[in-house]
Design brief:
The complex is a heterodimer. Chain A is an all-alpha fold. In chain A, about 65% of the residues lie in helices and about 0% in strands. Chain A is rod-shaped, with a radius of gyration of 29 Å. By secondary structure, chain B is mostly helical. The interface between A and B is large, with 30 and 41 residues.
C-alpha cells in the first residue's frame, strides 16, 4: 500500500482509529452474542439431559404401580 | 405475527434467515469499505478525513433506527403482549448503544481535525449523548427487577417516553444553530452529496442494517433459550429433582 494511503492526506491519525474502533466494536458485539448463545444452548442441553424421563419414574416406596 | 410467538417456530425461522443475513452483511460491508477507502474521492474541503463519514453516518443512522425499532417493539409488547416483542427490545438495546458510542467516537475523531474540537455542546451532539443515556436507561430495568417481565414492562414504557428524542436528534440541525452540519442525505430536496460518495455510504448503511438484523436474530434466540432454562430450573426446583443450572 502506498504511503499516502496510510497517511490519509495527513488525517491518518483520525481516520484509521475511527475505522478500527468501528471494526472492534462490531466484532466484539457479534462475538459476545454468539458466545452467549452457545453457552446458553449448552446449558439447555445439560438441563434437558438431566430431566427425569416422564412417566418412567419409579413411584415412591410402598406404593406399587396401579395395574 | 403471532405465528412466530411460538419459540420453536421462531428458532427455525431464525436459523433459516441467519446464513442469508450474515452473508449480506459481509458482502455489503466489504463492498462498502472497498468503495469508501479506495474508490470514493476525497472531499474538496475536508480531504481524506471525509472517509470517516462512511462509518460515522451509518453508525448514527443505526443508533436512531435501533431505538425506533425498540420503541415499536415496546408498543407491540405493551399493547398486544406479543411475547417476542419484549425480547426483541431487550436484545436490541446493547446494539443500539454500541452504535451510539461509535457515532459519538467517530464524530469526535472527525470533529477534531475539521472543527478543531473533540466535542461541543450543540443540539445534535447533546441529543445524541442523551440517546446514549436513554439506551443505558433501557438496559438497566431489565436487570434491576427480580421479576423479568416487570423489568421489561418498565423498560418498554421508558423506551416509548424517550422516543421523543429521535425526531429531536433528526431536526436538531434545523431547529437550532449547530456546529454539526445539516442534513445531506435525508432532505426534502433529496441527497446533496455526490453519487461517488452516496453509494459507498448507502452500502455501508445497508451492511450495518443486515448486521443488526443478524445480531437481533442471534440475541433473541439466546433470550428464548434463557427463558426456557429459567423455566426448567423452576420446574426442577419445585420437583426437588436435579440441580438448577446457572
Amino acid at each position: 500500500m502506498p504511503d499516502s494511503f496510510l497517511a490519509m492526506g495527513g488525517y491518518g491519525a483520525f481516520v484509521w482509529p475511527a475505522f478500527a474502533a468501528t471494526a472492534a466494536v462490531l466484532l466484539a458485539l457479534w462475538l459476545e452474542s454468539l458466545l452467549r448463545l452457545r453457552q446458553r444452548q449448552r446449558t439447555l442441553e445439560r438441563l434437558e439431559a438431566n430431566l427425569p424421563p416422564r412417566r418412567a419414574r419409579q413411584p415412591a416406596a410402598g406404593h406399587g404401580p396401579a395395574t | 405475527m403471532h405465528r412466530f410467538a411460538n419459540p420453536g417456530r421462531f428458532m427455525r425461522l431464525a436459523n433459516r434467515l441467519l446464513p442469508w443475513t450474515g452473508a449480506l452483511t459481509a458482502i455489503c460491508m466489504t463492498a462498502g469499505l472497498y468503495l469508501a477507502l479506495f474508490v470514493a474521492p476525497p472531499d474538496y474541503q475536508q480531504g481524506e478525513s471525509v472517509r470517516i463519514m462512511y462509518v460515522h453516518v451509518p453508525s448514527a443512522w443505526m443508533a436512531l433506527f435501533v431505538y425506533t425499532c425498540i420503541a415499536a417493539a415496546s408498543a407491540v409488547a405493551l399493547i398486544w403482549r406479543h411475547p417476542l416483542a419484549d425480547l426483541a427490545a431487550k436484545a436490541s438495546s446493547p446494539v443500539g448503544a454500541a452504535f451510539t458510542v461509535l457515532a459519538l467516537m467517530t464524530g469526535s475523531l472527525w470533529g477534531k481535525p475539521m472543527w478543531g474540537t473533540w466535542w461541543v455542546w450543540d443540539a445534535r451532539l447533546t441529543s445524541m449523548l442523551v440517546l446514549f443515556f436513554l439506551y443505558l436507561g433501557h438496559m438497566a430495568p431489565m436487570n434491576a427487577f427480580e421479576n423479568p417481565s416487570r423489568g421489561r414492562r418498565a423498560a418498554a414504557i421508558l423506551a416509548l417516553v424517550g422516543f421523543v428524542n429521535v425526531p429531536i436528534i433528526k431536526f436538531s440541525v434545523d431547529w437550532w444553530n449547530t456546529l454539526h452540519q445539516s442534513a445531506s442525505v435525508f432532505r426534502v430536496d433529496g441527497p446533496a452529496i455526490h453519487p461517488d460518495m452516496l453509494w459507498p455510504l448507502l452500502l455501508m448503511a445497508l451492511g450495518f442494517k443486515f448486521y443488526y438484523l443478524s445480531l437481533l436474530l442471534i440475541r433473541v434466540k439466546g433470550e428464548l433459550i434463557e427463558a426456557r432454562v429459567r423455566s426448567l430450573n423452576f420446574a426442577l426446583l419445585e420437583a426437588g429433582h436435579g440441580r438448577a443450572e446457572a
